[in-house]
Design brief:
319 residues, single chain, 15 helices, mainly alpha
């Protein structure tokens, strides 16, 4: 059983919190440009992500290109698809059909999936030690889910159900990405985390280009210049804040924390997504939503306590 040094623990915690704050914006973006399809939103965001990655990585491209083996290229391709394009299309569909709260609930189960899988790693914290944190996480998600079910919805049941299944698909897609990305980051431990993020950005941008003909065939819809301007602004903002800065913080956190704790950090995204949702809807959280926030905080604090290395004084007392 291994513990994380306190310095790495708290630095990783701050990086995870920052990533969650920026990633929470992703849940709000589909509402800001609701007139555009999820595929249009995904292609717009990731074309911007790819372009920004190309600009930032260009000075170091020759050095990085020498490391791009066929196996590494394959890893970048499937990580880009699972963690970006596929995930975002499903998430945007879930938000538009089922709402921010329901989507946040389903994605909120990610810590459980990642932590359970991470507990199988050699030297990982035993699952029984993580049980209190996982139970608090599930309780928080149940509170949000009950609130989402009890709130009257304007959309037909079939639409909300489709949105739910899209959210489940997004959960599965991002679980695969979180675990795979953590694995490859540790294998490339001599590569700066931001360079890894930019390489994934290039792969995602290339994949987004392949989907441009599909978007054109399906039709661009009837949008005026102002709508397209807003679409471009939101796409670039989300690409910069969530994909460039948010992913960089997440990758840094993934190198500082064990996989059993990495999953817990996604709770910050859930919490911030709900906060942005409340601001967008101009309302205060209900009793259940407030309870969910407290349970999410308790879950993270509990997980930190399990992984924290005892100080010298604490170790002396324990002895």
């Amino acid at each position: 059983m291994t513990r994380t040094s306190n310095g790495a623990l708290y630095a990783g915690l701050l990086c995870g919190m920052g990533a969650g704050a920026l990633w929470g914006l992703v849940f709000l973006a589909p509402e800001l440009i609701r007139g555009f399809t999820p595929l249009q939103q995904a292609v717009g965001r990731y074309l911007a992500y790819g372009a920004l990655s190309l600009i930032l990585i260009f000075p170091r491209w020759r050095t990085l290109a020498a490391r791009l083996t066929p196996r590494l290229l394959w890893a970048l391709a499937w990580l880009a698809l699972a963690g970006n394009l596929f995930y975002y299309v499903l998430l945007a569909s879930a938000v538009q059909m089922g709402g921010i709260a329901m989507t946040s609930l389903v994605i909120g189960f990610l810590p459980v999936a990642v932590t359970i899988i991470g507990s199988r790693e050699a030297g990982a914290m035993p699952l029984r030690r993580l049980a209190p944190s996982l139970l608090l996480c599930v309780a928080g998600a149940v509170c949000i889910g009950w609130q989402a079910v009890m709130m009257p919805g304007s959309a037909p049941v079939a639409t909300r159900l489709t949105g739910f299944f899209c959210a489940v698909g997004a959960l599965a897609s991002w679980t695969a990405f979180a675990i795979g990305n953590n694995h490859w980051l540790r294998r490339q431990d001599d590569m700066p985390a931001q360079d890894w993020n930019l390489l994934i950005g290039l792969a995602t941008g290339a994949q987004a280009l392949l989907f441009v003909p599909v978007v054109l065939l399906l039709g661009l819809g009837d949008h005026d210049a102002a709508a397209w301007g807003k679409f471009a602004t939101v796409s670039i903002a989300v690409a910069l804040l969530a994909s460039i800065v948010g992913n960089a913080l997440w990758n840094r956190m993934s190198r500082l924390l064990p996989l059993t704790m990495v999953g817990q950090m996604i709770l910050f995204e859930t919490g911030f997504a709900l906060l942005y949702g409340f601001l967008w809807e101009q309302r205060l959280p209900t009793l259940l939503e407030g309870a969910a926030f407290l349970l999410v905080i308790a879950s993270v604090v509990s997980c930190i306590a399990v992984h924290r290395r005892p100080t010298t004084a604490e170790a002396t007392i324990a002895a």
